[in-house]
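This part of the workshop introduces the protein records we will be handling. A learned vocabulary of local backbone shapes supplies the integers on the structure line. Getting from the letters to the tokens is the skill we practise here. As an example, a complete record with its sequence and its structure tokens follows.
=====
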Amino acid sequence: MNSSYVHGYRRRESERLQDQADTLLELLHHDTHYPAGSSVLEAGCGVGAQTVALARGSPGAQITSIDVSAESLAQARQRAEAASITNVTFREADILALPFVPRSFDHVFVCFVLEHLRSPELALERLVDVLKPGGSLTVIEGDHGSTLFHPDSDAARASIDCLVQLQRRAGGDALIGRRLYPLLARTGLETICVEPHIVYVDASRSAWVDGFTNKTFIAMVEGVRDDALAAGLISADHFDAGVRDLRRTTEADGVFCYTFFKGVARKGRA
């Protein structure tokens, strides 16, 4: 798979992904349910942060979760076992070279994967190939350009932009959320519906301040500090000032907003 995971594979990143999954569970997955007996492919499961929610939401479905990283799959298996999940099979596989025959799955689920790929169009094409006629494809992606906050800060925006630039250099697109509809439309899928899922955080929502603003978003930005400095994208003082200003949004008069995009489409029966 022609990708480079800009956030790295450190233990702290695994923890961040789980914090993100726990915080966003209801926002992103409240309407993701698959019928009992259906076969579901989760493409790019990573460390399994989304897998547990997917499996619990559809306990009667049989889920195959794949990832290109053996190390990530080992963590995903451990996470599923710890949660007593029994309806998931893990398999090492590349989205661009899927080891499945065409029309193998009733449904395909992809979350926070396309943003890391050089060829998201090709990845979707491969996934549509293994989808049965009448089946659904669900894709969830974020968009770092959707970030809004108060108090506003040029330094904070510069720190966030380091993440966007590093992901672009690695072949990905941190702004891919806004492109979901045209990406899905090019696959030939039908009844495409893309909806924004907005995270809004103020001081009255302490769980979101901690779970999303601090542990998900700011932790993600902080995680690329060394790479941003090594690439000469920003000075250490400027980056650190940006992170401080992002933390300022978690105070009593602060506000933080971010938009995820969730697209669902179906494959024609013809």
Summary: Strands lie at 39-43, 62-67, 88-92, 105-111, 131-142, 148-150, 190-202, 255-266. The mean pLDDT is 93. The domain at 11-266 is CATH 3.40.50.150 (Rossmann fold). Residues 19 and 112 are 14 Å apart (CA to CA).
